[in-house]
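Quick bug: LacI family transcriptional regulator output formatted oddly.
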Amino acid sequence: MAKKVTMQQIADQLGVSKFVVSKALSGKGGVSEATRERVIQAASQLGYFTQPRGYGQSRKAPEPQPAASGRQSVLVLMPNVRFQTPESLYWGRILNGVTETLERSGLGVVILSDQRLDAVTSILNPDGFLGLIGIGQISTPLLLEVHRIGLPTVLVDHEDPLIPADTVFAGNVDASMRLTSHLIGCGHRNLHFIGSTGFSSSFRDRWNGFRNALEEQGLPVQDAGDPMNALRGIDGADYEPELRQWLAKRRKQRTLPTALVCANDDVALVALRNLEPLGIRVPEDLSLVGFDHIHEAGSPSSPALTTVHVPKEAMGRRAALRLIERARDPKAPLEKILIASELVLRGSVKELRSEPEPVGGESAPIG
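Here's what came back:
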């Protein structure tokens, strides 16, 4: 049996005192952010967070409560930032799935949008909550504090390499491969991915699915360091000038691809409104697809956007059920749950009957 990893071992590896390690792992002040990050990284590498009866495992597992008793609540953490709010057509529907399932199970729900560590820890009574469900991007220090007290955690559309937790995602890689394969089947051979692959696991998985589909067909793939893979954030106000400049440059150089595969519907709609002033028609001159199907009642764009339907409420429901399962069996293996998604085919894709020429009539290298 492997020996237990101690704080002293972490301290010895980093050349600091055990006191510094203790303060860093407890989330207390008195250490710099850089030192805290070094301690967390070293602890993760040594297996401190995942060892049996180790960090975050001292809390006694709660006795399962009858669903109808309503004696326990679940903390739902959903950071309220510009692109991630309860009113969002994406995040809000995940939240609905979570809360409806918990309420049907007789559990109370406490929704918190402020993810400042002090704000969360002030209410984080481990005996008062069955567990925590995090929706979207949650900071590592906050997840570390939740893990430290041993509170069961399920993350939706987010994972942290340092914090072991159950996670729920859409099947992003598979769905992106099918979406890209659909374009290839329509005759497209010059495709480009648009979206910040460093922003989230979901965006990165969608890029991987796009790349896999092209590689399977022996088609050229843009370099992973392409500027369109590193757009600033996810809010259109941040990256739209950069995208507009890229489209204008490609239009001038006559090197536009025949199809753009966007990381989500918002990116696709931003691209669409910047194509029109350049005289580029969708889908006559360029095909355009998104991801998420945020406008399920009908696309607001013309033409209507081909996309991927992500079952958002189902993701929320599955996260709630997984948390209940985790609370009943704390020692069960962690799960990464993938929810299947479906293509929604609309009018933003043109079928090419023969090898196309890019806008302007010259060859279009991927670069």
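Actually, after a second look the formatting is fine. The two ends are 52 Å apart (CA to CA). Closing.
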